[in-house]
Amino acid sequence: MIMMRSGLDGQLAALNNSMIEMGAMIEHAISGATRALVEQDVALADEIRSNDGIIDEKEREIESQCMKLLISQQPVARDLRQISAALKMITDMERIGDQAADISEICGYLAGQTYIKKLEHISQMANATIKMVTGSIDAYVRKDLDLARSIIEYDDVVDDLFVQIKRDLIILVHEDAGNGEQAFDLMQIAKYYERIGDHATNIAEWVIYSLTGKHVGKEA
User: Is the pLDDT of residue 17 over 50?
Assistant: First the structure.
């Protein structure tokens, strides 16, 4: 029994490492997409889009790890929740990668244009979502219930920034209808960041489930 438990613990540790690796990938995708936007770097935007396939591949790898754990081991209730939570989390993580790729795609449309407003609030949204993604995955690996709860609360920061960006863009369009097309693109980007925040919240909620057996909220 001790040997079986040791084998399970080793595979769970390997799962944690894979989750950390996938987390690093999506953090890189968010930060890269943001840098491509701010610096109007089309090559970087293309790189982030092409890397989305690598994130998808990592999702499949982790899914396989989870299924092998479920089939070959005998996880007790808490272990079972940890594995089940990982399966749910990687779906949200993959979607975060998709949204970073979507942001990068819009960067191509905006390349060469003079921005109608400074991008400080969008950059702040990006940094806030990276903090949420990093924190939610750390909470999973460290089994930190308080950290998971704080990530859910921090989503209000992202939502408030989204409202601020929306307000600013509406004013700019009212002042000059010619700003409309770029305003729409920037609004889409802000919406993608908001969704990333929602997915990070989902991840934190699944962390809470893995630790308590209770799932709060709904998936975005």
Answer: yes
The radius of gyration of the chain's CA atoms, rounded to the nearest angstrom, is 19
Asked if residue 220 is part of any domain, the answer here is: no
Residue 136 sits in a domain whose CATH number is: 1.20.58.220
Residue 219 lies in a domain: no
Are the C-beta atoms of 180 and 209 separated by less than 8 Å? no
Q: Is residue 76 part of a domain?
A: yes
Give the pTM: 0.92
Alpha-carbon distance of 117 to 172, in angstroms, equals 8
CA–CA dist 69, 77 (Å, integer):
13
Query: For residue 42, what are the contacts with CB-CB under 8 A and spacing of at least 6?
Result: 36, 107, 108, 111
Domain housing 7:
2-212
The answer to whether 137 touches 203, Cβ cutoff 8 Å, is yes
